[in-house]
Amino acid sequence: MTTDADDAPSSWSYAEFAQTYPNVNNIGIATIKTASADLLAQVAIAHTPVSDLDWERAFLFCAFGAVYLGAFQYWYQVNIFKKVFDVDKFTSQSWGDKLKDTEGLKSLFAQTALDLTAGVFSGSPDPSVWLSSGLDSYTTNFSKDEFDLVRVWAPADLICFSVPLYLRLPVRHVVSFVWTAYLSFARGGH
């Protein structure tokens, strides 16, 4: 004799969803994270009343999160890195073995180098302004930002680059949210 409980579908599992649909999972997290970071900046940093929130700006952050931080980063940090580095071998090792894996550590340092040299762009639609603005900001804040980047992203990359691929970007988004909030609070209206 079967009961209704026997016929009920199994409960939903985030881990199963993340493994089955890693790109969709990443885009969802990136979209929500980026929009949330902007809303946090508007409300907590700029002290904007909820009734005066800039929803167009929030939507742009949402779109940026989906397209760049979600889709594009997944494409290059998972699909491209999987082709360039032996990612599966490194992520399946114990921590002790990871620290002895010279090739895996080279991959880790390559990922970290890419992250630490990423540029920043301005709100201009002109890519030459992004470059100029990003370089100006980078030059002005280099000594403080590089020290903080290394302190935050070097250990974060060790973790992000060490977890299974389907978790790489979700873990990265947690660190990224904290990093973005730190920069927003540190820079404020500067």
Describe the protein's architecture and organization.
The chain is an all-alpha fold. 78% of the residues lie in helices and 0% in strands. Helix 3 (22-45) runs antiparallel to helix 4, helix 7 packs antiparallel against helix 8 and helix 8 packs across helix 9. The longest helix is centred in the C-terminal third of the chain and has 34 residues, at 127-160. The chain is globular, with a radius of gyration of 20 Å.
Average pLDDT number? 77
Unreliable stretches, pLDDT < 50, 5 or more residues? 119-123
Helix count from the secondary structure assignment: 9
**Main β sheet profile:** none
What is the straight-line distance between the termini? 69 Å
SS-derived structural category: mainly alpha
Overall geometry: globular
Strand content: under 5%
Counted beta strands? 0
The residue fraction in helices comes out at over 70%
Question: Assembly state here?
Answer: single chain
Computed Rg: 20 Å
Q: Helix and strand string, N-terminal first?
A: HHHHHHHHH
